[in-house]
Amino acid sequence: MLRPLLRVLALAATVGLLVVPVLASSQAPQQDIDPRSGLITDFRGDYVLSADGTLAAKETVTTETREGQPGVARSWDLRDPFDSHVRLVPENIAVEVDGRSQPVELQWQQGRRVRVAQIADAVTAGTHTYTVRYTVDGVLSSSDADSGTSREPRTPSVLRWDVVPRGWDVEIKRSTAHLTLPAGTESVRCATGRDPDTTCDITGTGSDRITITTGALPARTPVTLRAGLPVEAPGRVTAPWPVQLDRALGRSVLDLAALLVAAFALGGIAYALDRRSRHAAPHVILTVLAWVSLIALLAIGILAHPPVTAYLLPVAGCAVGGAGLLTRRPAVR
């Protein structure tokens, strides 16, 4: 009677460990803007897009800092606002403060959805310049996946990008963004905030070099560019589930499939040992191999930041299959 109960408890615990992080991530509130935050007097973005869909970005901000002001941070939302299955993951993040290289502390928020770079702790009052460099793969989408208006000409690929990102939590007095593209644009427009009816100043339409300028922007207000390009859209970084599930399932279908195979395999081994243990002691070598594999998989999941709870699936497989091993009494000789 105890074996079925333990199997049910193991399944319930597995479901809970997979679901709770997802609920916690989806309900995590966005951090409020610190009223002590300073001011970005000038934002300059320099973006170079390759034909393979890789964007190399350099963001330079000039700030006015007051005494007691908190440190500066830059955040990236990995979810593409125009396609919930696409992941825009920043890589190769490097920071300079006043021309000097600065160590970067990377953190996660909202599970695995928002990447945060803590650029600098509180600095002396005055004017400071921060430069952030990073790359993002798969920023080009196909025109079939784009939700632009029917008035825009159809192009093989479309670039939608926040040339002034939402990830700066301070007011911006003025902004300038320069883009170098792999080919001349066939259509260009931009919007301030998420309202498509707002506009900004664009120069270079029809060429491979675009410049966008704005005046003052409230904190967390993006300036979004949409450019139609005559190049084919390459592959993108995607997952078949929404970004809220990344905390539980990760981002790789192959990794998840491997974990499921491992769960069934280890569960089968544990079940076989359980059946054998009713008549004789389980084979020591098989038991050791099963536990070593289990611990290795669990360690990989724990060392991820934050941990991916799908790595607990092999644990569940062993617990469900080998429930009897936990309750087996030593044979009386």
Automatic annotation (TrEMBL):
Q: Which UniProt keywords apply?
A: Membrane, Signal, Transmembrane, Transmembrane helix
Which residues belong to any copy of the DUF2207 domain?
40-228
* Signal sequence range: 1-24
Q: Which residues cross the membrane?
A: 253-273, 285-304, 310-327
The record's InterPro entries line, in alphabetical order, gives: DUF2207
Protein name as catalogued: DUF2207 domain-containing protein
Q: Which organism is it from?
A: Aeromicrobium yanjiei
